[in-house]
What we know:
The longest helix has 11 residues, at about 25-35. Helices cover about 25% and strands about 35% of the residues. Strand 9 and strand 10 form a beta hairpin. It has helices spanning about 25-35, 45-50, 75-85, 95-105, 130-135; strands at about 1-10, 15, 40-45, 60-65, 70-75, 90-95, 110-115, 120-125, 135-145, 145-155. It is built from five helices and ten strands.
Amino acid sequence: MKLIxxxxxxxxxxxxxNGKLPWHLPEDLARFKQMTIGQTVVMGRKTFESLxxxxxxxxxxxxxxxxxxxxxxxxxxxFALQALSGxxxxxxxxxxxLFAEALKIADELRLTLIDRDVDGxxxxxxxxxxLRKNFRxxxxxxxxxxxxxxxxxxx
Length: 155
């Protein structure tokens, strides 16, 4: 199984504010949909609660110590990954705590890097040094105001 982190990150590592994305970037939403449709997405409880409904056409998994009606939940990322071991790809989609845990074991990072600081209350973990030591650039696509950047683990 390939574990993939997919995230949109501002220059100051902001990923959210008040339980929502603090930007509207249609290209990022389209990329997220294209990459995750038909796949398994794993998220923390707060991320799940910020959604209007589970993502359609995906297996939605929530990491929570509580049972959540309508979706499959596991008490930890470790338990979820054991249960999902037969899947080809599993996408970790947030939030901050789950990203920090998954970063240590992820096979790929598929990031949208937003070229500005954004006010927020949820942040992607510090990753730049870890990235340089453990990943190599796989793909990069520049756009005005943001870039799509994909990395693959080398260690």
